[in-house]
């Protein structure tokens, strides 16, 4: 009788335990899902951008007032005036100066850039007339996407009543269009949300991580191999071991301060450069890689080492022919996870100036750059409403890279894992 | 206790060997002659130091932190603990087979070919193939693996794995083979095969085997050394040790009273 009661109690406890596990898993997935869904909901609209169709007359009187068509003149010509002229033609009734200014602000500064590109590529267009899709301003874009509430009080709205009326008219004439926002993937940062792109930050992240990988992977693996396989076990190596573990726990901002003090102030390396960012992140990643690599090396059964040594393999041959191949999936996984952490790191990079506003896409490790998480931070810090969707889209790009790296870690582990 | 009475060529010779693990003394004052082309069995209860002694013969103790060896061990008259002795070359001359089969997680072929390759024993692929086939043949494994040399060594059964390890050891043409309880992880049939193999290998190699099984020692060895509590109690012809031990401790061990 008592047996039966105990059995029932045990079953109940088992069921309860299972249920705790299931609910913990579901809760975790829910949080993750909430983050992902909210990011996608917020950010998906950034991949499309509003364009306005304008009748553009490439007026030679405006563009080449002195008749010269050399590249310099064409580059510096007054393209905004061409756009303004077109808008005035579209709304001839707008004559007051400040109303005109409000009208002109419906079209992005990027519109004149695209006109400049067309003319410098093909100067023969001067004097011609064409209807072109040009980039709308961020406020028009947000309005079209329904992110500006039309019935909000006018002084709290980015578009005033007059501008809204014009936009309605443009829409009614079928002159607006949402198109795939390729510029987001090909541009650097900009003060204008509709022009701002992620490529500058993505390339900055790429160069930074390249430096990090090149430095931290070989150094980390060699250090782990030496400490685990060759170093004598004494007080000095014990101390090194403890300090590596401590280093892994140091807040990343401290590494940033170190980079600022040592690399910028002492060695005079360039500010905001991926080179310095990469070195700082390498220092931060190094302990992680060493610890992961040592764990992987430790997991190689001693019998394999004995077997190799016993047939006359030297210690180096034993390490390189047997230990490293068996440990490499673990080493690579550790390295990739370390790199993924470095990719998501922003605090130390703030300290070395990678937080500056940089519109150009960096072309090397010495050029000023920013990185994906810092770019997201910068956008989050900007007042324009349109940056909200950019920032969510930036997060999506960053998460995509992170998922890809983690996937790579899994694939490598599967691919190279050996059984014994 | 030097054995002057035997007229065999002595391959290896231990004199006054002490081994310490840190502060702890594992072996004290071991004197032992190991005759060439014979099987010498080291027997004794667990923790008596027989494996420790075995691992002195190819300096595998070197990789254990805090292990210290005193005294002299010579092979063919040369002190293997002298400064001139390269430990890697020594281990190529003195092969070893372990308690638990430990093939590399590589193909059967690679397992055997690895040693000859790192020692530059084959000038080309053909020679290497020959060494591999010859070693597998001598280890009595060739018929079982002929058609799957590319299969992983770990896919074999325990007994086959152990014979693969023997093939791997003999592929580098050692002079001596040390076996540390090679059959303790195997079933009786696999054990019998290994024992047969040891008997065949005796013609070409000097073999030292550590075993817990006195029957095995009696079956495969010609010389037996009985260790007890870090001392070498008695050594002699296997027959004499098992039928007419001189020391009372040996008597007690082989009759099962200590162990």
Whole-number mean pLDDT of chain A: 92
Tell me what the CATH architecture of chain B is. 3-Layer(aba) Sandwich
Cα-based radius of gyration of chain A, to the nearest Å: 30 Å
What percent strand of chain B? 25-35%
CATH C-level class of chain B: Alpha Beta
**What does the average pLDDT of chain B come to?**
90
Q: Can you summarize the main beta sheet of chain B?
A: 6 strands, mixed
The first-to-last residue Cα distance of chain B is 23 Å
How much of the sequence lies in strands of chain A comes to: 5-15%
Helix-strand string of chain B: EEEHEEHEHHHHEHEHEEHH
**Helical coverage of chain A, percent range:** 55-70%
Summed up, the domain count of chain A is 2
Key attributes of the depicted protein:
heterodimer; A: 420 residues; mainly alpha; MetI-like fold; 2 domains; three-stranded antiparallel β-sheet; 3 strands; elongated; B: 259 residues; alpha/beta; Rossmann fold; six-stranded mixed β-sheet; four-stranded antiparallel β-sheet; 10 strands; 35% helix; disordered N terminus
Overview of this protein structure:
The complex is a heterodimer of chains A (420) and B (259). Chain A has 420 residues and is mainly alpha-helical. Helices cover 66% and strands 5% of the residues of chain A. Chain A has helices at residues 2-43, 60-63, 71-76, 79-90, 97-104, 109-121, 138-144, 161-172, 183-186, 199-230, 235-248, 252-266, 274-298, 302-310, 315-343, 347-351, 372-380, 387-416; strands at 48-57, 129-135, 176-180. Chain A has a 3-stranded antiparallel β-sheet. In chain A, α1 packs across α18. The model of chain A has no long low-confidence stretch (mean pLDDT 92). Chain B has one domain: Rossmann fold, CATH 3.40.50.300. In chain B, 35% of the residues lie in helices and 26% in strands. In chain B, a hairpin with a 2-residue loop joins β1 (10-21) and β2 (24-35). In chain B, α3 (108-118) packs across α4 (125-138) and α4 (125-138) packs across α6. Chains A and B meet through α14 and α15 of A and α2, α3 and α6 of B.
